[in-house]
Amino acid sequence: MKIFIFIFILQCFSFEDYIWVISDTHFDSKFAEGGYAHCKSIDCCHEDSVPKGNNFETAQFCGHHSCHAPLETIMSGMDFIKSHESISKNVIWLMDVIPSDMFQMTKQRNLNDLEMFHNELKRRLPGFTVLPSIGNHDYFETSFWAFPPKSQWMLNNMSLWWKDWLSPEEIATTKKGGYYIHQLPSGINIISLQTAYFDIMNSHSGEYPKTDPGEMMMWFNATLKVLREKGQKAIIISHESIGLKITGMMDVNPYFTRDFLELYKEYSDVIIGHLAGHNHIEGYRLYPGEDPFYSVIINPAMTPKGSNPSLRLYKFNDKHIIDYTTYYLNLDQCNAEHKYTWVKSYNTQEEYGLVNLGNSEIGRLHYMLKNDNIAWSKFMKHFSTELPNSCEGNCRKQRLCSMENMRESGYAECIKK
């Protein structure tokens, strides 16, 4: 009888833990204060940027909403995390470090910028464990991640940069295919998948499913099986997620989406959540639209290009991701004051009344956003992290349809309803 009482007490007082999440940390090593912010290239705010038309607006101290940031602006977020290290010294990093313009990239510049960022991250966060997940922009050429062994040169570099954070076993699978599993002190496992292989724009993505890159999917299946046998739980992290962009276009290879969903459903007792980045905006995806068995939370970006820089603090236990709090840097204020001031944007429990961020509660949020104008207004306020974002006409329906469908055909049918 006493044993049953003890188990009941443990269940009632489940632990709570915290972890930081940063995503899309694009910085531009060519950023120059005074460089033209609207130019004839993809990436602007450079010393040699040529103004487009008659728009002579220039970049300021902290950056510009049309450009990727100087390194110091991104690193001010790391300083904020460091100042709150008593909460958590674990950071999930959903990567994408390199800027957008592949025409201004070289293999050596990418490697130099990645090494610079890794070194600075370690300097700003001493004693922290950083858990990376590879982005599509972290390769040369951008978004064209080749399957191993053709991408071995980059995987070897990632393994070298990450050895301060990961164990030898974790480095071994990183070197094999860019993926690993890491157990937090709380006992929750973080599974990092290399989803940039499957980017729909990647000419190599069509090699799947005939080729399993670095045997990652086979490893993923076996790893989930072992966790079930041990009675352990996992949070999945990846730079890109399955599903659709807000435009209704596929984000990743549809066969990977199919296989990932099958595994997610089969091991729903093991997986307590999925965190991703890539889209630079506030969002989530769920499937199916009603009574979902799958959901992923899309994290906003550290880059100010199109939004205010932001990061998150997640709270979780062994059953759910409970909530997150978003913090952001008001770029206009930063430029006016020449001062990096990170402040709270919102918390999911306070803002939407969500009990947790499990599949059912994400489904309830989706229903609210469809039917509650106040909830939708809140969502749009946060969509670009406190930066005004227009959504007129059929935009609301399009965005909601993109979040509840995994295929373009389903999106098209949703829009017609």
Task: Give structural attributes.
35% helix, 16% strand, alpha/beta, Purple Acid Phosphatase, chain A, domain 2, 6-stranded mixed beta sheet, 2 domains, 417 residues
Which SSEs are present, and which pair or pack?
Elements: H1 2-12, E1 17-22, H2 71-83, E2 90-93, H3 107-124, E3 129-132, H4 152-162, H5 168-177, E4 180-183, E5 189-193, H6 216-230, E6 234-238, H7 254-266, E7 271-276, E8 283-287, E9 294-298, E10 310-316, E11 321-329, H8 331-337, E12 342-347, H9 348-352, H10 359-371, H11 373-383, H12 395-403, H13 408-416
Parallel strand pairs: 1-2, 2-3, 5-6, 6-7, 7-9
Antiparallel strand pairs: 1-10, 4-5, 8-9, 10-11, 11-12
Helix pairs in contact: 2-3, 4-5, 10-11, 12-13
Describe what you observe in this structure.
- By secondary structure, the protein is of the alpha/beta class.
- The chain has two domains: 14-29 and 69-416, Metallo-dependent phosphatases (Purple Acid Phosphatase, chain A, domain 2, 4-Layer Sandwich), CATH 3.60.21; 32-67, no CATH class.
- Helix content is 35%, strand content 16%.
- It has helices spanning 2-12, 71-83, 107-124, 152-162, 168-177, 216-230, 254-266, 331-337, 348-352, 359-371, 373-383, 395-403, 408-416; strands at residues 17-22, 90-93, 129-132, 180-183, 189-193, 234-238, 271-276, 283-287, 294-298, 310-316, 321-329, 342-347.
- The strands form two sheets. It has a six-stranded mixed β-sheet with strand order 3-2-1-10-11-12.
- Helix 2 (71-83) runs parallel beside helix 3 (107-124) and helix 12 runs antiparallel to helix 13 (408-416).
